[in-house]
Amino acid sequence: MNLSPRRLSARLTSIAVALAVALAPVAAEAARSEKASLPLVRDAEIEALIGDYARPILKAAGLSRSGIEIVLVNSGSFNAFVAGRRIFVNTGAITATETPNQLIGILAHEIGHLAGGHQQRLRQQLERAKTIAIVAGLLGAGVAVAGASSGARGATQAGAGLMAGGGALARRGLFSYQRGEESTADRAALTYLRKTGQSGKGLLETFETLDRNSLFAGGRSGNYLSSHPLPRERIAALKQVARESPDFDRPDSPALAQRHDLARAKIAAYTGGASEDRRLFSRNPRGLAALYGDAIATHLSGSPATALQKIDALIEAQPNSPWFHEMRGEILMNSGRWQESAAAFSKAVKLDKSGSGLLKAQVGQALVIGGDRSQMDKAVRLIQSGLQSDPVNAVAYRFLAMAYGHLGDVGRAELATAEGYWHAGSFRQAKIFATRAQQKLKSGSPAWLQAQDIISTPIR
């Protein structure tokens, strides 16, 4: 095939556009896969704490009725971000913040992104940046093709420069836009904190820590190629406004500070064991948080009797803590003492003011582990009660399936398995089990229709 430079350039243009269109779904699928593969973690205690932190901020931002969900990510890195109607918080951000106010400041910043509609505008900017990069690349390809055909080496080099320069231009424009949105979210955070009578000092302290650790610094490109303003720039921009608040020097309440430390201790014990717990609370090794982390680490190391003694001592010190009773239930359940475990979880449910569906389901899960068929109807009711307030608890669906299995109700067991897969993001497996469930359920019954909903819902 013999094409003129102009016709060859046009041909390359059409191929590039076709490739861009063809690869768009692939890129979208990759983005979905990355989100689905996030190492998420569920914990009633920590979710209740973060929910209490976020609730007044969401109200101040006018988002209290917007169905915002807070999701914990099992990662030691300091990060929080928003996607859709969700705020993702890394467990590392919780352990790294020494006070509630520091973490509240970070949440206020993320809520600023949500209230400002930054995600939608970022998508528009991404489309714009992609268009700039594609157009510049096509123009560069056209120049390069013409140069190669005519033997003009300089034109070929210019085309290569255009292709590289177009991508850099798009990237710099996008980063500049993102830096502006970050600054806007910072200012919004201070506004929400002031409305709720909270200090902006924690947000400044967090940026000071980031600056010391140089998390956003480094590299010759520095701020120019960064999607975030440098921490020192953020501090300079916010310090005066933060100090103008009458609540700037208001400390966290001792009770809230203790809850924060207990959550940090739990994360430290589960991720780093006793050594991480000791490191985190080296200044107060006999404090309640340090002892809580030690009890959890002892449990995880396979010493249930000693762990039970330690958690019982904490319950004696704070008998109305639902989370100490919950941990007692965990220890007993792993020791095979399922009846005592269910009783401990029941006590936790009664004391829990957040109404956690996770806790409610745990009572039934302990009964399922016991394997006593006479307790399975009760287990089903308890797990279903938990799922009513927390319908995305994939683990609870697995236990519900086991309970139905003990009762010999295979159709409902497979339906529960399908729902568990669905909420875990395994949609194809969910459809397989829903199809199997339908074959055993009465046609047209509520359970049959639930299975049909799963089967007929398209996977995007």
Any overview of this molecule?
InterPro entries: Mito/Outer_Membr_Metalloprot, Peptidase_M48, TPR-like_helical_dom_sf. The chain has 460 residues and is mainly alpha-helical. It has a domain at 5-243. The chain has 19 helices and 4 strands. The protein has helices at residues 5-36, 44-60, 91-96, 100-115, 118-150, 153-195, 201-213, 231-243, 254-280, 288-300, 304-317, 322-334, 338-351, 357-370, 376-389, 394-406, 410-423, 427-438, 446-456, and strands at residues 40-41, 69-73, 80-83, 86-90. A 4-stranded mixed beta sheet has the order 1-2-4-3. A hairpin with a 2-residue loop joins strand 3 (80-83) and strand 4. Helix 15 (376-389) runs antiparallel to helix 16 and helix 17 runs parallel beside helix 19 (446-456). The longest helix is centred in the middle third of the chain and has 43 residues, at 153-195. The chain is globular. The two termini are 40 Å apart. The model is unreliable at 1-35, 121-167, 169-177 and 215-227 (pLDDT under 50).
What kind of oligomer do you see? single chain
Tally of helical segments = 19
- Rg of Cα set: 27 Å
Strand content: under 5%
User: Structural class per helix/strand content?
Assistant: mainly alpha
User: Which of globular, elongated, flat, extended, rod-shaped describes the shape?
Assistant: globular
Query: Largest sheet, described in full?
Result: 4 strands, mixed
Spatial arrangement of strands, main beta sheet: 1-2-4-3
Mean pLDDT score, rounded? 81
What is the total tally of β strands?
4
